[in-house]
Amino acid sequence: MKRVKLDYGHDVTITDEAFAQIEAITNANKVCEGCGNVYSSERPNVALNLCITCFQRKYTDQNYTYAGEHDTNWSGETIHWFVDPLNVVYSTTTGSRDPQRDWYYTLLYWGFPVPRTWQDGEETKEINYHLWSIEGNVKTDQVIFIKNSLDYGSERSVDFLSWKDGRTLQIDRRKGEGRRLFLAAKKQIEVWNLYVRVSSSVLLPKEMREQLPLLYSQEHEKDPMVYVKFFHPNSHWTWYATEFDGLDMFFGFVYGDFPELGYFTLTELEEFKDQLGLGIERDEHFTPMRLSEVKGLHPETPAVLLTPPQPIIVIFIDDEAQGEQNGRN
Ligand SMILES: [Zn+2]
């Protein structure tokens, strides 16, 4: 006997034969929830009640490219692959709602071998397939670093180099040949990591990034154009960018404690948090203007004393530490 739900909250008990018939009818007549079309090979069911067309429409911002069926999972659902603009593979199944980022599938898709075991001293141990992360551009690089966390939530991990031609090598990044190989590829990987970061930056969206001229391009301009303004909502600190290197480095006018022209990076702007947890923001209402006009918006010397008071932090210290503390002040 089986229980089925025919409409809202209404359960019916039926025989196994009736259930099998309903299942067969359902499977033969499944349609997409979005467009009402019957699934077909051109219009496969790639996620829960969605065809490929409706799925692509739902995730249009992600710009996923469909990479076909991969396999079936343990419950018989078909696994579908999608590739995002940064070459990372996402998977869905006919029973899943949202695409999941998957480093293991990313490695398989781009033809990088995935080690099955690792050496723990003399001992050979099995690797958990779900805990991979990748450094490097899987599309263009011939060798990448892959890191396997040994357990969920564990800090312990083991590093490998993986070559597109089929080799893998467990390495120690800190010593010997592993360190030499790691350093050789590090620069290229860092550039890729910055590219990945800037591509998904909220602080500097794509439109702003494309608007900014390249570094040094306004070098000979006496009164260069300022394109972007970043600010800290809780102080006078403000950054005006005139140029950008496309990855991380800005040049512009920094209105800090000592206002000056200089370099600053997207990484440092994004990572900054004050004691209240406030980060840097971009002024969405800022319209491009000349540097001289920007300078005119602020008093020449920052009104440091007018900044809101810092939160009071009470530190309990014993006598010995107090002596030390006073010495520092
Ligand atoms: Zn559809």
Explained architecture:
- The chain has 329 residues and is an alpha+beta fold.
- Helices cover 24% and strands 29% of the residues.
- The protein contains eight helices and 21 strands.
- The protein is extended.
- It binds zinc ion.
- Zinc ion binds next to helix 2.
Summarize the topology.
Elements: E1 2-7, E2 10-14, H1 16-28, E3 45-47, E4 50-51, H2 52-58, E5 65-72, E6 78-83, E7 89-93, E8 100-101, H3 103-109, E9 117-120, E10 123-126, E11 132-135, E12 143-149, E13 157-163, E14 168-171, H4 176-199, H5 206-211, E15 225-226, E16 228-231, E17 238-244, E18 249-255, E19 260-265, H6 266-271, E20 281-282, E21 289-290, H7 291-296, H8 319-328
Antiparallel strand pairs: 1-2, 3-4, 5-6, 6-7, 7-8, 9-10, 11-12, 12-13, 13-14, 15-21, 16-17, 16-20, 17-18, 18-19
Bound molecules: zinc ion.
Zinc ion is lined by residues 32, 34-35, 37, 51, 53-54.
Keywords:
four-stranded antiparallel sheet; alpha+beta; binds zinc ion; disordered C terminus; 8 helices; 24% helix; 329 residues; extended
